[in-house]
Design brief:
With 466 residues, this protein is an alpha/beta fold. The protein contains 13 helices and 22 strands.
Length: 466
């Protein structure tokens, strides 16, 4: 029987990053993955393939709608080769997963393919092509999440689908009905809207992306409506049925008025659930809640002292970069170091176009906490860089403590704000004030100038370019 210092169950961003860091710190490390490819949901059926399709569809939309205004004329008709688009997406995924294999070999991490389940607190049985058991002094659970659904919806993976199937369709839907106005539904909805599908989004809450700042919800709703997406907000879905290739979705609004939508595909995008199925955690004494979540302490330790859990199976936002931070945190904890994670400073991003990004507290949260704050906001359309690229939608909004001027939250909508949010994270990590950001030189012309201008607006309402 092989013996390890640490064994990790699950090879998503949390698991494989934990494996690399453990190996870097001198631990003999095993990584267990039930599928034949590494990378988990993010690399295979999540972040990476969805961004590949978002980029491909964005290029198509640019060619169809905006090339002419740049003086680019394309003779003949611009056509979609959807099969090629899906093939490119698959190629990007393959390259990325092979990169993880390379990193495992480089760091001398032993990879086991098969379903990992606890025999006890220090032994894991792996069921793959053959059955084998390994021993580990410490174990990290990093088994991730799966798409959630509603009790009355039967996912058939053909016409009533999750995000997994939406990434491998063989045709462009005529009418895609999206249940859920969160990140996944909006991103995939925008992909297929760009490609010509009619898209309807049904959301139970009174706004899309409800966990983000309400100003971002309003801006993205406005932009996506201009793009042709239809929204049914404050609508509760009561039934989803299929008759041959027609899907019918029934929902009621606040006044109990019934709305019926018919389409050829329905994407159920109502969040994700922790995936602990088949783990047999009870054999190790690890407690799992009724919802499949694992409780951990401030060291990400379960109720069994040598077993840790990270990523989507524990509390907090289900984000790949959160899982990565937690993987490094546990590895360094096991090595006797004193790492830290500030969950308030883990950014959230929606990769629509324009992109949406946030870090820290939003206005609603500050109001609930009775924190007195000030707001500085700057529109993207006032930037020379935005006008040059034609990306004029959006804004940067900075929330700062009214007394100390410390930045408490930064919320953005606009071109490349998924990258731009890192400036805000850095500033907040070092507890910068709005004035600190306002006094830093930002290259011209860039989208980043909007951060400086918003900081100026928050400092003393003295933005320069509005």
């Amino acid at each position: 029987m092989s013996t390890y210092d640490v064994a990790i169950i699950g090879s998503g961003p949390g698991g494989y990053v934990a494996a690399i860091r453990c190996a870097q710190l001198g631990m003999k490390t095993a990584l267990i993955e039930k599928y034949s490819v590494l990378g988990g949901t993010c690399l295979n059926v999540g972040c990476i393939p969805s961004k590949a399709l978002l980029d491909s569809s964005h290029h198509y939309e640019e060619a169809m709608k905006h090339f002419a205004e740049h003086g680019i004329e394309i003779p003949g008709e611009v056509k979609i080769n959807f099969k090629k688009m899906i093939e490119r997406k698959a190629s990007v995924v393959e390259q990325t997963t092979k990169g993880i294999e390379f990193l495992m070999n480089k760091n001398k991490v032993d990879v086991f393919t098969g379903m990992g389940a606890f025999k006890d607190a220090t032994h894991i049985e792996i069921t793959g092509d053959k059955k084998q058991t390994i021993e580990a002094k410490n174990i990290i659970i990093a088994t991730g999440s799966k798409p959630a659904t509603l009790p009355f919806i039967k996912i058939d993976k053909e016409r009533i689908i999750t995000s997994t199937e939406a990434l491998t369709l063989t045709e462009i839907p005529k009418h895609l009905i999206v249940i859920g106005g969160g990140v996944i539904g909006l991103e995939l909805g925008q992909v297929y809207r760009r490609l010509g599908a009619e898209v309807s989004v049904v959301e139970y809450m009174d706004r899309i992306i409800p966990t983000m700042d309400s100003a971002q919800s309003r801006e993205l709703t406005k932009v996506m409506k201009k793009q042709g997406v239809k929204f049914y907000l404050s609508h509760k879905v009561s039934a989803v049925s299929r008759k041959k290739n027609e899907i019918t979705v029934t929902a009621t609004d606040k006044k109990d008025a019934e709305v019926t939508l018919s389409g050829d595909y329905c994407l159920v995008s109502v969040g994700r659930r922790p995936y602990t199925d088949g783990l047999k955690a009870e054999n190790a004494g690890v407690k799992i809640t009724e919802r499949g979540m694992i409780d951990v302490n401030e060291h990400l330790q379960t109720n069994v002292k040598n077993i840790y859990a990270i990523g989507d199976v524990i509390r907090g936002a289900m984000l790949a970069h959160k899982a990565e931070e937690e993987g490094v945190f546990v590895a360094e904890t096991l090595a006797g170091q004193k790492p830290h994670i500030d969950y308030n400073l883990i950014p959230s991003v929606v990769y629509t176009w324009p992109e949406v990004a946030s870090v820290g507290k939003n206005e609603e949260q500050l109001q609930e906490a009775n924190i007195v704050y000030k707001v500085g906001q700057f529109p993207m359309r006032a930037l020379g860089r935005s006008r040059a690229s034609g990306d004029i939608d959006g804004f940067v909004k900075i929330l700062a403590d009214k007394t100390t001027d410390e930045v408490l939250g930064v919320h953005m909508v606009g071109a490349r704000v998924a990258d731009l949010i890192a400036e805000a994270v850095t500033a907040m990590e070092f507890r910068a004030s709005a004035e600190d950001i306002a006094r830093m030189s930002h290259a011209h012309p860039t989208y980043a100038e909007a951060v400086k201008e918003a900081a100026l607006a928050a400092t003393a309402d003295r933005a320069l370019h509005i």
